Amino acid sequence: xxxxxxxxxxxxxxxxxxxxxxxxxxxxxxxxxxxxxxxxxxxxxxxxxxxxxxxxxxxxxxxxxxxxxxxxxxxxxxxxxxxxxxxxxxxxxxxxxxxxxxxxxxxxxxxxxxxxxxxxxxxxxxxxxxxxxxxxxxxxxxxxxxxxxxxxxxxxxxxxxxxxxxxxxxxxxxxxxxxxxxxxxxxxxxxxxxxxxxxxxxxxxxxxxxxxxxxxxxxxxxxxxxxxxxxxxxxxxxxxxxxxxxxxxxxxxxxxxxxxxxxxxxxxxxxxxxxxxxxxxxxxxxxxxxxxxxxxxxxxxxxxxxxxxxxxxxxxxxxxxxxxxxxxxxxxxxxxxxxxxxxxxxxxxxxxxxxxxxxxxxxxxxxxxxxxxxxxxxxxxxxxxxxxxxxxxxxxxxxxxxxxxxxxxxxxxxxxxxxxxxxxxxxxxxxxxxxxxxxxxxxxxxxxxx
Length: 450
Known about the structure:
- This protein has 450 residues and is an alpha+beta fold.
- Helices cover 36% and strands 21% of the residues.
- The chain has three domains: 6-120, Methyltransferase, Cobalt-precorrin-4 Transmethylase, Domain 2, CATH 3.30.950; 131-378, Heat Shock Protein 90 (2-Layer Sandwich), CATH 3.30.565; 381-449, Winged helix-like DNA-binding domain superfamily/Winged helix DNA-binding domain (Arc Repressor Mutant, subunit A), CATH 1.10.10.10.
């Protein structure tokens, strides 16, 4: 008999000859649950040949109970019987667990190639820290029932997912839908289910509301406006965005004579990306809220929680993987088109700010919160005129905002002036704190925004 390719062991496939190897089977399920998920086929030998399994009346039920009893948190895999070459084999499939690490017989494993390796103490600590968000949103909600789930919200979600991602799911009941989404346990709703589709999520998770505050000046001391936005997480995105827009100014940007375009104080697409990431990826186990703080000179988005292991502030500004800390929330957010799951959210923020000619957003991990800071472009036409700049200097500021720097010769070419005039204008811009001189003194020097 030839070897069947689908039964070759891999990162997501394990084969066992019989149920006598229960310990090894559970170790594989632990490893799969702690990584990308996978399948264990029972009734196939090491060479990939079909041997079959004797299946009695209670074989599958006993297997399910053995798996549940000897895994922590308990696993509830999909168990099925397949018939190949007139012989019965058992397939046991698990998805990546929303709660990590998963132990089997008091040990936790990871999948490395075709082997199951026991997690080290360091790996256990990292996985546990990373799993905080998972653990909380995957927990059961005490007292919550299907009556707390909005059928209208589910139907809207199903329609939007089909429209934006081509995702189709047959909706027959609340319980069936939530089970397919992995949002309900044996009988209890998960916190994620209530957050996403609850009629009143804050009844069970009070910290899930978001806040937007407009402060007077540059310090969080005196409010000019304050909003608390509740409801499910999808509606919070729109509600928070509306509150932000109400507290921002829509001004006019001069892009050339006589062309003028309307522009918000901050690029809205970048702000939107920031609040979606904040709401989707925050640690809901923390008692603080997602907050937007608007000051005279900046806008800050505070999201409770830490960056996932392996992700740094520096990495966020370049190409990086997607490591969503709340998979039960991230998948529905992806399906309705709010996130892409490619680790590109922070890159889009950078691009939108660059397109708007505004400073690059700042990312900061405080240890308890992740903070995104957008700083406004204060160098407006009015501001520069109020400083007493002439037309040549204003053109030079626009040029540097677009190109990043300007040399004396470029200033001359831009304005059609002599070197002495350019030198005097540039020195005046440095004196007024708008430009700073960089590079080598003399021919190699250039000027940047200070």
